[in-house]
Amino acid sequence: MSSILELNSLSELKFHIKTFDEKLNEQFLTLPVQTLLKRRAKHIDEMLVSLWKMYNLHNTSMSLNAVGGYGRRALHPRSDVDLAIIIEQELSPQQQEQLSLFLTHLWDFGLDIGQTVRTLSESIASARSDITIATNLLDIRCLVGSKKHALTIKEQLYQNELWTSLSFYDAKMAEQQVRHNKALNTALYLEPNLKNNPGGLRDVHTIMWIAQKHFSLANANALKTIGFLQQDEVYELLEAYDFICRVRWALHCVTQSAQDVLLFEHQAGVAEFMQFGQGDNSQLAIERMMRQLFRAMTRVRELNQIICDSFKLDTLNETERGNLQSIDKYFSVCNGLIEVKFTQAFIDKRQVIRMFKLIAENDNIDGIAPQTLRLLRQTRRGLLGELQDYQGCREEFLAILSHPKGLRKCLGLMHRYGVLAAYCSQWHAIEGQMQFDMHNAFTVDEHTFKTIQYIDSFALNKKNSLTYSVYQNIGNRFALVFATLCHHLSGKQAIENSELSAIQAKELAEEHLLKASTTALIYWLVANQDLLISAIQTQDISEPDVIKHLAKTIGSQDKLNALFLFTIADMMATNESYWNDWQESQLTLLYMALRDALKQGIENIFEVRTVIRENQTDARAELVKAGIDEERLSQFWHSLPNNFFSGNSVEDIVEISQGLLEGVAGTTRVLVGKNGDNGFTSIYVYTEDRPKLFVDLFKTLASSKLKVKDAQMMQTKDGQVLEIIKVLDHKDEPIDDEPRIEQIVKRIYRAIDQKDRPRKLVTPRALKNFDSPPVVTVLHTTKKNRALLKVNTLDDPMYLEQICNLLSEQNLSIHSAKISTLGECTENVFLVSNAEKSSFGHDEQLKLVDIIEEEIA
């Protein structure tokens, strides 16, 4: 190149740099990107050395050193040029002036320069106190001057005096975790940060720095020769790293700035620069480029974890294998990581999916051991078909979706390690798929997974939130999860593609041999996924006709509950700000209006009959298997109303039926259900009906400092009453204290026998300052001698006592009752009749409404 001394003006200097960069860009498609980076670094080296000599600084004791990415000879078109100027003693006034002129002239280059001026001892002290400075100096490279400075700093860093290998490793891992947390632990942003997101360039640099520090490597490329990585991992890592580097080079050229975030506005230009396509083919070009980028970043993140975990376990020997626990003949757990016992474990493909189920079942498992993860990767690459081809894999996958902790932990690992893509081709097709709209922040697969995470989080919400209350009343949670997993299988997030996704979801459900009602619900949810959000955005939800039409489309309370939760989760997973207070208020208003409309008798009776038939079939099989006499079971079920089978899960039907049939026929039974994943303690009472029984039980529970969150009262055909009550303690937690459970059961028996008079109820302190009068509505019922009343109140036990007392004073009998907590409010529905069981006229119903509203208010 021409000497910098020959460039007579600033414009000539900038033109010289621009010409060289253009020459490199012409070679972008013919040379490896690492060659381009090195050539650009070398070019800048020559310019800086010439400038250093021009100011006669080479005759001083100072040294000019490249650090950071420039020190690694990895200089992108607009990257910072980081310099470390090291001095041995205080500079003379003349040297200070020369150095000042040199630094001033650097900015004339049109480059982003970052420089420090320190003594050798100051540099070492700074490296000791700051991991970022230590890392920056790890890549120090002398350009001109005393080479001893750079060598001394490297020697100090390689030794364990400044940082031990372990302390350096821990510090870099902590830095990496902060970066990953900031990016919500995903590489799959539609506008990814090529440098700092999980799977970005920094994840590769972290691996290199840790190895450089421990093995005293002068060049990170020596990773290939020391056995730190397996050969296939080296090639895969470098291939993915090179692709990300090429995208970053193109991004710098397109934006003419040091840009690391690949924004939508730049993606077409970058795709064109990289020869993916342009013009009318622009969107397809972007999709192809971004899919390759996401796959590269996913591979980098996966290899980063394998290598970092292996390094700590095998190289640092930090963790002893003293906590080895055997699970079965295939798997064991060591220091919180699951590992296979032999390398042929995954020949049985069922064990691939089963490993993730074991992660859900065992709280002491935090992740997968690096060698097992390596074996999983090899198995994944060697598949000739899909994992779902194997029946055992399908069974284990369904078990994961049904497990209380299956979504929280192991499904995330399956998504992260590409096992979902290996499980079914439908998921593989949407992996890394772009979404072209102004709202979405994530790829199709990442958005889908985040939606599932939000669905799962509703079980952990505040106990008085509406989403928590609705989630607890979901009749078929499995269908909701399965539908969420499938809701964008068409690859696009648009209304016109929902039907295609629904068809694929139905096919997948049928391949997994799901029940007909479950498959139908999955199909309906996916096909109608935009129904509620479209309504609040495009329709007047205060119009009764709009609500009536939507209610007919939905058809049942179970569908409404599932669609409501799905819609919220889908919106929350779109981006961090899409779900807001306005959306929440509108969707809540719509939900309550539709809930009221469905209670007016719009529910689809045919769907309800299908659910009853399937629940009875499944529960009967379980009970007969448990040794229950089938004839006696049929007699017992014949006495129960249909809503017992439509309003309870198969598990609840089995638990209640088995518990009651194990007792003596005709005797009072009080049972406490097992605490499952629903977050409640269930109490079942079966006894002869009597006046005020319902309110006596309610007062007994309330005076025992229990909160009734849901209750059903059903009269049987033989004069008995079955009450199913879900409660929480005063801390909003299920009851797991056996002595307390025994005490509660004794109090219930005494209340049934009227041996105890329950204490007078009081209004909770939190509600004393609220003035919210009850709202009473008469609902439609086909029984002319019955009235169906709905009373909405605050969640105050005083109200229920008052309502029941009023009904008793009016000589009205309660035939069934349903108490549902919805956030801060309670919905009480009673089916009542008068003493003569005569017809309930319209005027009599209105009179009853007025009495209740006036007396309670």
Automatic annotation (TrEMBL):
InterPro entries: ACT-like_dom_sf (IPR045865), ACT_dom (IPR002912), NT_sf (IPR043519), PII_UdlTrfase/GS_AdlTrfase (IPR013546), UTase/UR (IPR010043). Has four distinct domains: an N-terminal nucleotidyltransferase (NT) domain responsible for UTase activity, a central HD domain that encodes UR activity, and two C-terminal ACT domains that seem to have a role in glutamine sensing. The keyword Transferase applies. It catalyses: [protein-PII]-L-tyrosine + UTP = [protein-PII]-uridylyl-L-tyrosine + diphosphate; [protein-PII]-uridylyl-L-tyrosine + H2O = [protein-PII]-L-tyrosine + UMP + H(+). CDD domains: ACT_UUR-like_1, NT_GlnE_GlnD_like. Gene3D superfamilies: cca-adding enzyme, domain 2, Nucleotidyltransferases domain 2. PANTHER family: BIFUNCTIONAL URIDYLYLTRANSFERASE/URIDYLYL-REMOVING ENZYME, BIFUNCTIONAL URIDYLYLTRANSFERASE_URIDYLYL-REMOVING ENZYME. The keyword Magnesium applies. This is Bifunctional uridylyltransferase/uridylyl-removing enzyme. Uridylyltransferase (UTase) activity is inhibited by glutamine, while glutamine activates uridylyl-removing (UR) activity. Its cofactor is Mg(2+). Modifies, by uridylylation and deuridylylation, the PII regulatory proteins (GlnB and homologs), in response to the nitrogen status of the cell that GlnD senses through the glutamine level. Under low glutamine levels, catalyzes the conversion of the PII proteins and UTP to PII-UMP and PPi, while under higher glutamine levels, GlnD hydrolyzes PII-UMP to PII and UMP (deuridylylation). Thus, controls uridylylation state and activity of the PII proteins, and plays an important role in the regulation of nitrogen assimilation and metabolism. Belongs to the GlnD family. Residues 1-326 are annotated as: Uridylyltransferase. GO terms for molecular function: [protein-PII] uridylyltransferase activity; phosphoric diester hydrolase activity. Residues 682-764, 788-857 form the ACT domain. GO terms for biological process: regulation of nitrogen utilization. Its EC number is 2.7.7.59, 3.1.4.-. The gene is glnD. Keywords: Hydrolase, Magnesium, Multifunctional enzyme, Nucleotidyltransferase, Transferase. It comes from the Bacteria. HAMAP family: PII_uridylyl_transf.
